[in-house]
Amino acid sequence: MKRSILIHPDPRLKTLCKPVDDLSDELRQLADDMLETMYAAPGIGLAAPQVGELDRLIVLDCVKQDDAPPRPLIMFNPVVVASSDDTNVYEEGCLSIPDQYAEVTRPREVEVAWIDRDGNAQQEVFDGLWATCVQHEIDHLDGKLFIDYLKPLKRQLITRKMQKLKRERARA
After folding, report:
1. Is 137 a catalytic residue?
2. What is the count of structural domains for the chain?
3. What pLDDT score was predicted for residue 120?
4. pTM of the model
5. Residue in 91, 109, 137, 168 annotated catalytic
C-alpha cells in the first residue's frame, strides 16, 4: 500500500527513531509499503519517519540503469560501522523536501550492518551513490535532514519554501 510522505517541517522528521526489537508482520508490511511508496514517488531511498513511523527502518534501490534489474534493500536498525576518509559530493534531494537540491559532502565509502526482512544480520560496503543514499536515509533515523548540512541561510530559505508548499497543498 502506497503511503503519504511527510513534508518538512514536521516534528516526526526531526525525531530519533527507536530500534526495531522484533520483526513483526506489521513491520515487514511497513517495509513493503515503503518500497512501493519510494518507487512510486519516484525516489531511490525512504526512511520510516518520512511516512510517519518512528522505527529504525530504511529502504533503498539506487539502480539507475533501465536494463539493470532493481536491487531493493530493506534495512532494519542500519548502522554505519566504518567509513572512508575520502569524500564524495553529491547533489542530494529528499522526498520530504520536494524539488529542492543541494550539494552535500559525505564519506565516499561506508560499511553498513543491518537486519534484513527475514531477520538475518547483513553487512556490506557501499560506495558512490549507494553510500550517499544509505547515509542520507540513516540520517533520517537520527532526525537529521540533508538541509542540516547546509549554511543557515540556505536551510531557512528551503524551509520557508516547504512551509509555503504545505500551505498550498492544504488549500487544494
Report:
1. yes
2. 1
3. 97
4. 0.96
5. 137
